Amino acid sequence: MIKKNDILSSDFFDFEIFVYPDKEIDRIDSISSKEIKTLVVYTAQAEADDLSAFLSNILTAAKLDMSTDVFLLKATVEDGFSFIRIKTQLALEKVILFGIPPSSLGLHLDLKPYQTMTFQDTIFLFADPLEVIKEDVNKKRALWNCLQEIYLK
Predict the structure, then answer these.
(1) CB proximity list for 79: less than 8 A, separation 6 or greater
(2) pTM, full prediction
């Protein structure tokens, strides 16, 4: 039964609300938050060794060191976690999403693929899943253009 003053009721807000439990992301506590400036979230399907190598090549081309500059987070579209919670633990400046919609991070952002957006002092980039990018030259080019804009200028 929904109470009249329940803020999560559909009549209270004129936009969709994403409610996610504060999932623990154990690895955050074990890293130095001053070093990590980029969060990369990729789909759980991207497990194959060739896709891991592809991701590594992408990040290396953008002059990122996977061991010190990037926090990799494997997720599924159905997973939910709080970007705000991660941002309070890491000094993030950039977020790259491969096949994961912003709503999975608890964010109501209208991100178009291969366009950057700044929100809460963080640059966001939404791209297709790695397996799709790997097979499409035009998407590789679009991703590379965005990465150059973010990291190499």
Answers:
(1) 23, 104
(2) 0.79
CATH number at residue 93: 3.40.470.10
Strand partners, 126: 97
Q: Which domain holds residue 87?
A: 30-151
Would residue 6 count as lying in a domain? Answer: no
SS (H, E, C) 9-59: CCCCCCCCCCCCCCCCCHHHHCCCCCCCCEEEEEECCCCCHHHHHHHHHHH
pLDDT in tens, 99-133: 988 888 888 888 889 999 998 899 999 999 999 99
Asked whether residue 124 is assigned to any structural domain, the reply reads yes
- The H or E element spanning position 69 is none
- Rounded distance, CA 14 to CA 47, Å? 38
Amino acid at the residue 142: A
Looking only at the bridges linking them, the beta strands covering 94-98 and 70-75 are unpaired
